Amino acid sequence: MPQTRRFGPMSNREDGRAGSRPPRRAEEGERDWSVILEDGRAKTNEPVSGAVAEPEATTLRHEPHEPPRQNLPNKLFEKRTKVHNKRIDGPFRRFKWTVMFITLAIYYVTPWIRWDRGPYAPDQAVLVDIANRRFYMFGIEIWPHEFYFVAGLLIMAALGLFLVTSAVGRAWCGYACPQTVWTDLFQHVDRFVDGDRNARIKLDAAPLGPKKIAKRTFKYTIYLVIAFWTGGAWIMYFADAPTLVRDFWAGEATPAAYITVAILTLTTFTLGGFMREQVCIYMCPWPRIQTAMMDEKSLLVTYKDWRGEPRGSVKKAKKNPEKYGDCIDCLQCVAVCPTGIDIREGPQVGCITCALCIDACDRVMADIGRPRGLIDYATLEDCEKEANGEAPRPPWKALLRPRTIAYFLIWASIGLAMLFALGVRSHVGLSVAPDRNPPYILMSDGSVRNSYTLKLRNMESRPREMEIALQGLPGATMWTDTSRRESAARKQAKLVPADEVLAVRTYVVAPEGTETQEFSFRVTSRDEQQESVETEARFDTPGASE
Amino acid sequence: MANRNAENREAGGKRIDAATGTETVGHEWDGIEELDTPMPRWWLWTLYLTIVWGIAYVILYPAWPLIDRATVGVLEWSSRGELAEDMRLADLETQTFREQLAAIDVVKLQDNPELLRQAIAGGRAAFQINCSQCHGSGAAGSQTLGYPNLNDDAWLWGGDLKSIHYTIEHGIRQPTENEERQSIMPPFEGVFEAAQLEALVGHVQSLGNDQASHPVGAQLYADNCASCHGPSGQGSRELGAPNLSDAIWLRGGSAAEIRAQILNPKMGVMPGWKERLDEATVKMLTAYVWSLGGGERISEDAADPAVRTDVEP
Fold it and tell me: CB B16 to CB A69 under 8 A?
């Protein structure tokens, strides 16, 4: 027996599905508790629990059954066991309903929210306008050169996940992950069409007849509708939603729209309808990353084995109250699990911490008159203390600790910094590209001309009159591509269209004898804001090059 | 546990991991072992799917390399073909613009900002292909080789749209062309004595500024040069005679350079592009050269004789 401390051994989930099969009976009406037969292999059921073993046994918590096998069958691949999770009601299930409702509502409704930006900008509240390279989010408009805001949002999302994971473990997996939400949705469809767990198991085993075909067709049609709607909602974020819907059904939308909808329909249908927990267990990298981010102070859905073991029926426990723990091995925790694991085997990669087993167990404990919380959110540290007889600590106290506070502060400061940057950013911009070939031009009157391409950026959703002015370079005047040298002056005005960058060829002429020097262009908006930006440039003359 | 593992080893098996009940693969790296967890069955199906995909791809697209090409594939797709199709579509898109441009009087471009903008953009590309070899990629020309700078406001043959257009179409000093753009400057080798030449060079240099010059030079200039370059050296666009009174010297403004040009003048030639380029491209080039900063509006120069051309669009 290895004496190392083990936090959350990653159990192979197939082995972890001991309870999903009907308990084998060694004798008529009496289960042999010393051995568990699983997958044709016998495992001992020796309890390893702080409640019955020596104090140091707490360090061996969640030690699964030892496999007393002689030879392992040579298995390269294994067949998937379908999960038919049972309906349950309880606080966590209701919380899951709420999160599911909110997240789905956000996803489907957001593109339809309107936001008035005047006649020059789209009126969709959230719009990723790839063609015009603009990102609209309510009052915020992001240009490509401000993509660092999106990078900041992604950093916040990452830190947010660190924060949540360090505090409440895989809460993202359990409640908010799209894979979880859509799997949950599809499982409700299963329940609606085929009935609850037992009915579904029976239907699965039944031969293919007219009734089964009808039910399957009906179910897959609903799957398809949901999947199509999911794919359809996605593209609404990238174009004006009402127009796109009309174009889509008229066959006039871009091929990209149809291809995207087709791909997302297919992936939703497959991943939500069929792959489900397989995505979490085999495909997703997040469970692995999260395992590394959790520590002994993270809240996890935990089976309190020191209290539950050894398992025994209510009847047996009544006869022999000293011998048995609180777990009556009713397997309700397994039946309700959406990924089909047995939480009593300890933390494992298949557990998405949706806490439905807590609801199930609490319900059973209430029925048989034992205290709730045999399966509960708890930290490993608290579990060890509790197993050693200390008073249990309320789970919320685990949330406040230096690590979560540090994560929160970093997360919040990035958010505040971004809000600040958004608030003070200028809505005019100017970039100057001088002509390098030729660097200067001698004019027939002996003066020297330099040419520049100015880019005037107007980030407001209305046309703005802007004034370009020369700063420095005494005696110089300028004109632009739409004016003539006769109208050359120190200042020129330009009307910059709404939400656009206007390229202006600018010719600056300085009198004979001017030396090569630095100067700058200043652009000022001629409106209430009087926003102004200055960009440096260089004036080249033959004087410097000789 | 150890006992069981020993038994397993004797039976030819691997160590069994206690936590998961799974065999290890039998290797150990610094105490880290790898579990031999079976793959899910559906994973195998993704492998088969990729094989099917591969076969379909080989049938549909170019796949097997041959000596000078690859197998064609049922779809007959190729990257070159795709590019050709893209180019064809791009040409189609500019079709209306080119037709519009070919139809319009080149002078009217100056009052049609949208068409002018497009013409300038197209002209920039055409300039790099056809003109930059002599005039340079920035159209700055070359003083040593005598290619005029097209950015400045000094024009030998006129700087309005019509004149530029005519120059591009017919070229400069092309034997096959009509009489326009043909004038030449005679060589004065052996005509002047050394002192006379110095006086003349001094006078030419003084034209651009108000310095007094030698009366001999002024007289020589009036007798020999003023008929083309004008009495005060302002030049003539009709004859392509450069303005000698401005700050720009096509072939250099030093005494030696001026002397060399008087004795044995070099005159630029330029091919005509009418036969080589289509009408729209010539107009795009016209617009581009005109836009470089020295372009003149035709109304301002209506009285200028250089504007009169025998080509009426």
Answer: yes
| CB-count burial class (<10 Å; 0-12, 13-18, 19+) for B93 | exposed
Identity of the residue in B22, B38, B293 whose CB atom sits nearest the CB atom of A77? B38
Task: Tell me if B38 and A446 make a contact (CB, 8 A cut-off).
Answer: no
Chain A: give the shortest CA distance to residue B287, in Å: 12
pLDDT mean over A11-26: 42
Give the pLDDT confidence of A399-420 residue by residue, as tens digits.
Answer: 888 989 999 999 999 999 999 9
pTM confidence score: 0.75
Q: Supply φ then ψ for residue B13, to 5 degrees.
A: -90, 180
Q: What does CATH list as the number for A428-545?
A: 2.60.40.10
Select from A63, A80, A442 the Cβ nearest to the Cβ of B247. Answer: A442
Break chain A into its structural domains and give their ranges: 18-81+292-393, 84-113+179-275, 428-545
- How far CA B192 is from CA of A27, A467, B187, B199, B214, in Å, comes to 136, 58, 11, 10, 15
C-alpha span between A497 and A507 (Å, rounded): 22
* Interface membership of B26 toward A (CB under 8 Å): no
What is the distance between the alpha carbons of residues B288 and A50, in angstroms, rounded to a whole number?
A: 88
Chain B residues near residue A72 by CB distance under 8 angstroms = 8, 13-14, 16, 22-23
Residue B175, chain A, CB below 8 Å: the answer is no
- Coil, helix or strand for A7? coil
Whether B154 contacts B243, CB under 8 Å: yes
Choose among A78, A442, A481: nearest Cβ to B40.
A78
Write the pLDDT tens digit of every residue in A360-377. 999 999 999 899 989 999
The mean pLDDT of B209-226, rounded to a whole number, is 85
Say whether the peptide bond before residue A438 is cis (omega within 30 degrees of 0): yes
Q: Within 13 Å of residue A393, how many CA atoms lie on the same side as its CB? A: 18
- The residue written with tokens 């799957």 in the block is A223
Pairing of strands A134-137, B32-35: unpaired
Q: Residue A481: list chain B partners with CB under 8 A.
A: 291
Prediction ipTM score = 0.77
